[in-house]
Structure formats: C-alpha cells, structure tokens
Specification:
By secondary structure, the protein is an all-alpha fold. The chain has helices at residues 2-22, 28-48, 54-61, 69-75, 85-97.
Length: 107
C-alpha cells in the first residue's frame, strides 16, 4: 500500500502541473498541502470537506474538473484501495453536482 500511496503522490503532483499548464491555474495551496502531508491525506481532506475547495471552483470555472482530486480518485480504480467507499462516493457526488460525468477507466 505504501507503493500505491507514493504513486498517488506522483499523480497528485501531475494534476498540479497539468492545471498550471492546461487550465492556466496555479494551485499554490494545493501544492503546499501536497508538500506538507502527501497526496492521500490531501485528497481525503479535500474530498471530506463540507464544500468544494477554492481550487475545485477555479477548475470548474475554467472547464477543467477532470483535473480535480475528485475526478482523479473516482475515474481511476487503481486509487480506490487508498480511500473508503464513502469517500469515493462523496467525490463522485460532488462531480455529478457540477454536471461532470466521471469517465471510469478499467483497472
């Protein structure tokens, strides 16, 4: 599971870089969270928050929900063992509430 968590850390860093390049959004606080607590803890904190993060909102406004933590977690079953079922469902519900239909990849 430690290997999977390290891979997830890398995936979260990739999302940060892609958001900067593709959506022209620099998610500084997200990057700080990743540095301080790692990808899994950051994702859990964001997913379990009562409302979407500012970064989620910025990406929504730019049409890039595919680059949110929620989309990364929901769309790739590889990451599902790192999260509780209710966290995955909460992330899915948030995406659907913003009219984003997750594209779940085969694992």
């Amino acid at each position: 599971m430690a290997d999977l968590a390290k891979q997830f850390d890398a995936a979260m860093l990739e999302v940060y870089v892609r958001a900067k390049e593709e959506a022209k959004y620099t998610a500084s606080e997200f990057h700080n969270m990743l540095t301080r607590q790692g990808g899994v803890a950051t994702a859990k904190q964001l997913i379990n928050a009562a409302k979407p993060s500012d970064g989620y909102t910025r990406l929504y406004e730019r049409g890039f929900l595919k680059l949110t933590v929620e989309a990364v977690v929901v769309e790739n079953p590889k990451w599902h063992p790192l999260f509780a079922d209710h966290e995955i469902e909460r992330a899915r519900a948030r995406l659907l509430a913003y009219n984003y239909k997750p594209n779940v990849r085969a694992s």
